[in-house]
């Protein structure tokens, strides 16, 4: 059986398979960006592929900075790019979905 790497979302603290999460990376020049491939070099942190987790991580003062071991606050341009990426993500799927009305 093949080992599947596990990572923890820094927002909701859920442990998932690495491929189910999106990596956020701090590059050598202190830029922060979403790394969909998970292969960019730099300090990484992981977030679920759901809008709520990204909003939580970006709105909580210092959460992302702490996870990425940054000494300065997130650059405004980086924050804007991360918020734009967040807007492309689906909202959390609710398990209690309303039954579909069937008309016959």
Helix-residue proportion? 25-40%
Strand content: 15-25%
Q: Can you tell me the CATH class?
A: Alpha Beta
Output the CATH topology. Hypothetical Cytosolic Protein, Chain: A
How many strands, which pairing sense, and closed or not: the largest β-sheet?
3 strands, antiparallel
* Structural shape: globular
Number of domain units:
1
In short:
The protein has 104 residues and is an alpha+beta fold. It has three helices and five strands, in the order βββββααα.
Describe this structure in words.
This protein has 104 residues and is α+β, with helices and mostly antiparallel strands. The chain has one domain: YlxR-like (Hypothetical Cytosolic Protein, Chain: A). It is 25% helix and 21% strand. The protein has three helices and five strands, in the order βββββααα. It has helices at 51-59, 63-67, 76-87; strands at residues 6-8, 15-17, 21-26, 32-35, 43-48. A three-stranded antiparallel β-sheet has the order 4-3-5, covered by helices on one side. The protein has a two-stranded antiparallel ribbon with strand order 1-2. The radius of gyration is 16 Å and the shape is globular. It starts with 5 loop residues before the first strand and ends in a 17-residue tail after the last helix. The mean pLDDT is 88.
Task: Indicate the topology.
Layout: E1 6-8, E2 15-17, E3 21-26, E4 32-35, E5 43-48, H1 51-59, H2 63-67, H3 76-87
Antiparallel strand pairs: 1-2, 3-4, 3-5
């Amino acid at each position: 059986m093949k080992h599947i790497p596990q990572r923890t979302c820094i927002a909701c603290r859920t442990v998932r398979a690495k491929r189910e999460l999106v990596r956020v990376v701090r590059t050598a020049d202190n830029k922060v960006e979403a790394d969909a491939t998970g292969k960019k070099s730099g300090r990484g942190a992981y977030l679920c592929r759901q809008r709520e987790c990204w909003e939580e991580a970006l709105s909580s003062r210092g959460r992302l900075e702490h996870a990425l071991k940054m000494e300065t606050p997130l650059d405004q341009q980086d924050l804007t790019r991360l918020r734009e990426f967040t807007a492309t993500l689906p909202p959390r799927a609710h398990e209690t979905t309303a039954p579909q009305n069937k008309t016959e």
